[in-house]
Amino acid sequence: MLSPSLGTSAPRAFRTYVDSLLASPISDADLAAIGTVTVPKHLKKRGFLLQAGEVCKHFAFVLKGALRMYSLNDKGGEHLLSFGLENGWIADRESCVLLTPSAYYIDALEDSDLLLLTHAQLQALIRTVPAMAELMRELERRHEVATQKRLHAAISCTAEERYAAFVTQHPDYLSRFPHHLIASYLGILPETLSRIRAKQLRSNALPIASLS
After folding, report:
1. DSSP string covering the chain, please?
2. Would residue 5 count as lying in a domain?
3. Does some domain include residue 181?
4. Which residue from 15, 60, 85, 110 puts its CA 20 to 30 A from 48's CA?
């Protein structure tokens, strides 16, 4: 059940999020059904939700804060797969569904408040709560579109084009996250991103923001 430790803003925030994605507002009954199984969690900055080798046990909805999912190569270099921000979800979907050890880490970039659901709980909600079934269909559609766009960018776009698209889609990330995380997300070296930014900022092609 939703915990008082997160305050009454938790159900309100989740209701607002769901309503923004559904054709009609979520009912009180559906919201209550979701609230009976979600588990609140507060994660301090740099705290881990998942470490490589563990089975990912939860889908996490971010009420407040920011997380990242990433892997490490054999030299210790990070490859950032995704961010998880307010009104978004983060999980290793494959590990959570198949109950296999994850290759990824998920940690908090900021102090974060989360709502957690296991895969079994999520499937039960999809079967019994109409709003949750509709929400998951919409999220799956958006995930497929985003995955296709990112794959296309990785295959067909230059580093400059990927960064320009990133700035357009996520302008708030520029002042929120450090340079090296954005470079990792884009699949380029920090030095390459610095050169791209310097070139584009000189031409006033992109907004100036701190990436230190």
Report:
1. ---GGG-THHHHHHHHHHHHHSSSPPPHHHHHHHHTT-EEEEE-TT-EEE-TTSBP--EEEEEESEEEEEEE-TTS-EEEEEEEETTEEE--HHHHHH--B-S-EEEESS-EEEEEE-HHHHHHHHHH-HHHHHHHHHHHHHHHHHHHHHHHHHHH--HHHHHHHHHHH-TTHHHHS-HHHHHHHHTS-HHHHHHHHHHHHHTT-S------
2. no
3. yes
4. 15
